[in-house]
Write a structure and sequence with these properties.
about 450 residues; alpha+beta; Beta-Lactamase; Alpha-Beta Plaits; 5-stranded antiparallel β-sheet; 13 helices; about 40% helix
């Protein structure tokens, strides 16, 4: 799992992290490792920060661990005798996994312009966090954060791309400056080969900085054409990781040339916050899915049905298909619940094939419902006939009751009740023909709050 300080890995300043309780070095970015003569993080394991940074056997006398607080940087100057440089030091406290860590960013004090840039960067990052965290949802937080970074960095467009299940890239969030054409709708399911070169660079710890688009005309022609179509002249793109897995990237288009390095630092630092917001969004979506989705059949449950009914508009045509999977109890009793589950999923797949573009719901143990808004009458009956054929091909039987109304004047509840009664007449005819014991789902009574005759 990536820690927040790992997003400073390519920052062109010295960054280190130590355990505040025992002074063990936990992390040094690439610049710090090179500066102190190390080649990898493995070489600093077991070493104390004061031993490496100042060649002292005991903690430094000017150590300010007791003054640090989460979310705030303490700035001070210090002459480092090992490096023989005057440094501007920025320290903060990070609490993670129940432990306290000191993170230090060391800037060469001789680089006054760079020092001012870091001060401004810190102020803008803190302000961006403050505004974004006031939002009600993770998606709103991401929208606000992209807008804030786009304006702060004087870019024309900021965006997030996420890899989808097909291995392609989807533009999931976007902010554009006034007068700039949005591209989000045109950048869905982007073929993997377009960004393949970027991902190869991400895998070896690099981010993407394009100062002039023409620089990649020969080396990355597919990406060149993709960016040229969007009127992109320059950009900075940073990878996004979730627990070691690369899930996408985010970036900024057409920032001023003098701001490219500054934008690169800012995007790398903010990547941890972007990932955190994406994870919160995914958790909320998963919880909502679990609340509204029947886990076996992957169609809507009662809550989803109620929400669907609430969104229907008066006067629109409406078709209802009420289904009952016959023989489920017998299958469960004789062959086990795994066989019963398969019977249900097979029946549901047939329903999806005929009415998958409409609202589908499992409203009882063996009862399925399709609510088809704005469906034509002929299309409804054709769909039901196709459903019966598909069920026969799978050796599954469902009793089916269908009804269609041009303007649904009786209300959806009345139509559902009528479709249900038609389903029971179909079910009774089936039982009469084949002599199968009939059973009624008690869940339907709870759903519609009424008593019905035994089936």
């Amino acid at each position: 799992m990536h820690k927040i300080w790992e997003f400073f890995d390519t920052l062109d300043e010295l960054v280190y992290v130590s355990d505040m309780d025992n002074y063990d070095l936990i992390y040094m970015n690439k610049k710090a490792l090179r500066t102190y003569g190390f080649h990898s993080l493995n070489e600093i394991i077991g070493k104390k920060c004061h031993e490496v940074l100042r060649h002292c056997p005991t903690p430094c006398s000017m150590c300010n661990n007791h003054e640090l607080r989460p979310g705030y940087f303490r700035e001070w100057q210090h002459y480092n005798p090992i490096l023989e440089q005057q440094k501007i030091i920025k320290d903060t406290l990070i609490e993670e996994d129940g432990k306290r860590y000191r993170m230090e960013i060391s800037v060469d004090a001789c680089k006054q312009e760079q020092r001012d840039s870091m001060v401004n960067l810190e102020a803008k990052i803190n302000e961006g966090f403050r505004i974004a965290l006031q939002q009600e949802t993770p998606s709103q937080t991401l929208d606000v954060l992209l807008e804030y970074m786009g304006k702060a960095l004087c870019g024309e467009r900021t965006y997030i791309f996420e890899r989808n299940e097909k291995g392609c890239d989807d533009n999931t969030y976007e902010w554009v400056a006034v007068g700039v054409t949005p591209e989000k709708d045109n950048l869905q399911n982007l073929p993997a080969e377009i960004c393949a070169n970027w991902y190869r660079n991400f895998q070896i710890g690099r981010h993407i900085v394009i100062k002039e688009l023409e620089d990649i005309r020969e080396s990355d022609p597919l990406q060149y054409e993709n960016l040229k179509r969007q009127n992109i002249r320059s950009l900075v793109v940073v990878p996004l990781y979730n627990e070691g897995e690369m899930i996408g990237f985010y970036g900024i288009d057409n920032p001023p040339e003098k701001a490219l390095d500054y934008a690169s630092d800012m995007l790398q630092i903010m990547a941890h916050f972007i990932i955190s917001s994406l994870k919160q969004r995914n958790l909320i979506l998963k919880l909502k899915e679990m609340s509204y989705c029947d886990q076996l059949t992957q169609i809507g449950n009662r809550h989803a049905m109620s929400e669907c009914i609430g969104k229907l508009q008066d006067g629109q045509s409406l078709g209802i298909v009420y289904c009952d999977v016959t023989g489920l109890k017998q299958i469960n009793d004789q062959k086990g619940h795994a066989a019963g589950d398969k019977l249900l999923t097979d029946a549901c797949e047939c329903l999806k094939k005929s009415f998958g573009e409409y609202g589908l719901f499992r409203i009882g143990g063996d009862e399925l419902l399709a609510i088809c808004a704005e469906i034509g009458e002929a299309a409804l009956w054709q769909g039901i006939e196709q459903l019966k054929k598909d069920l026969q091909d799978k050796s599954v039987h469902m009793a089916i009751g269908g009804i269609w109304e041009k303007d649904s004047l009786n209300g959806v509840e009345g139509l559902i009740a009528e479709a249900e009664e038609r389903m029971y007449r179909d079910k009774a005819a089936y039982y009469k023909k084949y002599g199968v014991d009939r059973r009624r789902s008690s869940e339907r009574d709870a759903l519609f709050g009424r008593r019905t005759p035994a089936n």
